[in-house]
Amino acid sequence: MYQHCEPDSRHITLHDCHAEKINFEKGTLSFFFPDGFWVTQHHPLNHSGSIVLTSASQADFQLIGGKLDGMEVSIFQKSPNGTAIREDWAPERFINSVNAGDFDIEFIAEYKGCQSFLFKCWIWFGKAPYHFECEIILHSETVRYCWDELRYGCVW
Fold first, then answer.
1. Assuming Cys at both sites, which of 11, 16, 39, 60 could form a disulfide with 144, CB separation 3.0 to 4.6 Å?
2. Which are the contacts of 126, defined by CB distance < 8 A and separation ≥ 6?
3. Are strands 131-138 and 116-124 parallel, antiparallel or unpaired?
């Protein structure tokens, strides 16, 4: 399907990238990035000296145990008095909302731990307050980043 798939995230970042679709099949959770993700200048395929955006791409996480309960999602909203309110969402609800176009996910930061990934994200939607913060924890040891080409006209 894609020309390039790689299990190493050292030279790839999802920072400021938007996922507009999520799929879960055969134990693999996939995020789809229509505008691509970033490949650093240290990646052997990047010959530009700059951080470059890919074409449409996806990131595949093999969830430990092969079940969707290997995904945890928390949405953070503010109460009228400014207190943060954390709401845990079922993975199915979150995936269905993304796939229905209710919002898309902007990845802000990524942390890798033992058998897990933690993503700090924003979910964007078309009405005030326009976005909420969210955290996505994936119980996974492996990820594959897939894309077709580097877009040298889109650099960071």
1. 60
2. none
3. antiparallel
Compute the CA torsion angle 136, 140, 4, 33 (nearest 10 deg). -10
- Alpha-carbon span 19 to 117, nearest angstrom: 16
Query: Over its length of 156 residues, how does the chain's per-residue pLDDT go in tens digits?
Result: 899 999 877 899 999 999 999 999 999 999 999 999 999 999 999 999 999 999 999 999 999 999 999 999 999 998 889 899 999 999 999 999 999 999 999 999 999 999 999 999 999 998 888 999 999 999 998 999 999 999 999 998
Element (H, E) at 33: strand 28-33
CB atoms < 10 A from the CB of 38, how many?
Answer: 23
As beta bridge partners, residue 109 has 120
Structure tokens at 92: 């199915």
Q: For residue 127, count CB atoms less than 10 angstroms from its CB and return exposed for 0-12, middle for 13-18, buried for 19 or more.
A: exposed
pTM tops 0.85, yes or no: yes
